[in-house]
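Our working data are protein records whose layout never changes between entries. Instead of coordinates, the fold is spelled out as a row of discrete tokens. Here is such a record, shown just as it appears in the course material:
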Amino acid sequence: MPRNPSPPSRAGLLPGVLAKSAQAGRPAETLTSHLAATFHAVRELRHRLGRIEPVERVLDEQFWLVAQLAALTHDAGKIPAGFQDMINGRIRSWGERHEVLSLGFLPPLVPDQRLLLWVAEAVVTHHRPLTGSAVGRRLPIKTQYGDCGLDELRTRIGSLDPAVADELAAWLAETGGHLLNGGPEQGEPAVGEPVDVVAQAHQVLTAVLARWRRRLASEEEGLAAVLLQGAVTLADHLSSARGALHGGQPIGPRFPALLRDRFAERGQTLHQHQTRAGEVRGHLLLRAPTGSGKTEAGLLWAVGQVTDLIADGRGVPRVFLTLPYLASINAMAGRLGGLLGDSDLVGVAHSRAASYHLATAIDAADNGATEEGGWTSPAGENGELSRAYAARQAVSRAAATRLFRETIRVGTPYQLLRGALAGPAHSGILLDSANSVFILDELHAYDAKRLGFILAAASMWERLGGRVAVLSATLPTALGDLVRNSLTRPVESITASAGLTPARHRLSTRPYHLTDAAAVRHARERLDAGLSMLVVANNVAHAQQLFDELAPHAVRRHGDDDAAILLHSRFRRADRLRIEGKIIDRYGLRRTREQQRLPGLVVATQVVEVSLDVDFDALLTSGAPLEALLQRFGRVNRIAARELAEVVVHQPSIGPRRGGRDEYADAVYPVEPSLAATEIIGRHEGQPIDEEQATRWLDEVYAAGWGEQWRREVEWRRREFHDAFLTFPRPFDDRSDLADAFDAMFDGTEAVLLADLPAYEAALSVAPGRATGRLLAADYLVPLPGWAVKLASYNRTLGVAVVDGDYDPDRGLLAVRGVGADRYRPGEVI
């Protein structure tokens, strides 16, 4: 019997069908409301991302049509009584997958069989992989339903009101049927016989599984499939979070004038390399010394790329600015927000983004800010309540960035690399990188593995319509060549004019280690002379040893405890923030500009290299690769406000790490570039150094035999990452094994001290919401290398690794007791 052609009335059955249960401060959401919101979110994504050429070729210009149809129908399978009982709290679990039943609504809506399969794949994989290993609780769809006959599927789906199904089918036709050529016009529902939704779901699922049983996708097909999955999952998350994407790009045509005005306020004008960067159309390599406005040049370059991409129908391009360290990312986010006049325009994309937003809220409170969304809660007086309120705001802000809200994002390159993991959790990252602009600041050339991975990703970004700039104060020619080899389009090189910045340092070397008695005596002499001293060791053990030897002298000589400070990576998060604040207060560049410099001592590891805006009078450092040394030099006489500053490089110790055979400098760095750097610097004993010389020195290092070995490894790592992560022959396969491999590449974990466990647990319960509690409790976490997880136990109740160790708030983690503790040596980790 024909279905009634009139639209479903408000008095129909659908208003009682839910997609989302009520949550704290949020009412339950009806199914049709959620489907309509997700459908609208895809339209937002289309506006944001524009035409994505590689996938449009595969889908005959129908990528966004498929995404919209999949978004409209993705949760249609939530109508069975079992699911509704679950969402209304009458039962704990339905036990079936709603996305499988959603497939049953597609055939009447999508008559084209080829298009139907693309839509079906995007629908059925928006929560689970289609195929792959049956490990863990998130079983692939094929594992759960691959051998399921129609009768069994009916039994498993359970009670399903055909009138609800019929009404929903009419609503779907009314809402989305107009998308297809020859389909009904908007507002005119399809007319036809009632459908057997379960039978059609089984039919479509069978066709999808058959399509991927033995077939391997081409690179373009696999990429299209992954990006479709990303479009549906991202739209689903946006609609569930009731989020909205920023619709414009502030780094656009008006930005250069804003930047010029800011320069004029400081009595400055744009340098030639900044103006030239703004004229480039395409990829860029920029060499410019510290203090010459390298970042501003990159942003002016980005303006041209954004303008061109918009004119070419590429949506609203995102601008990604990547930096290697969290603290430098946080500082850059604040700097950009200040320049644009609105910090809300800039997203912070790294693993501790919520902590950054919490610290920003605290700073605002310290400065008297009390507006809604800042530090002071409506409740007001109680510090814990205010802190919990600020934490909730911080979690919300970080979550918005994870949903790609902002069109400007500052972060680590590794957050972008996670898009290569694809699947429901990560495919949205890859999708969001399409038609974007990437400014990669200070790539570490000597780390061949990570550099290779980033270059592989850059190749993918270009393939997706992106443009890439690499900025560096000291960019070796070998790295520039690798960048060119990784990209298919031309790469323009710009080098800042000679003499742009004055020489700031005078070099010397010592033939003994930084921990030698002679080095300690030298440091004490510099402290006696009233200088501010930075001492940089290559590992935690050496830093702690030097601090123990030098700190008492610095405190006696300069009269206060803050005259000696230790900074490394093995502090509780709250202690590290406190310590960094003390360093900025005493040695920040602001004091140099205001001529209020103070003497004293900071002993640090490489965490100080580019993480803090500080300025010291002199540096003693252990030998390391030249790039690392140059970053350390950059913490001294930062703006050439004084005469040439003394920087002294000591010979590193050479030997294997425990349990290994390969030799390293101070158990951290590769030997060859570390010794090469020390040898080159030794040839210039007592001479001033400028960054033009440093670039030539880098070319010498990378032109040697080690440099050729390094180049081969970078290219191998680039191919390895591309082949393992950036080809998608089985795009809907379970990639959890690759996720484990990815995390192992960037190893690192965090643990709470056994003695802090009660305080950690209490912090979890200060505020409602799992994420908010974890943010507050994170103050007690100590970073550890990935291998150190075997030294910890795991508290399943609290979901955290626990170590039994000795700890000092001013010296950090000292030792770890318990199983495997005899294998722990702080000097083995950075």
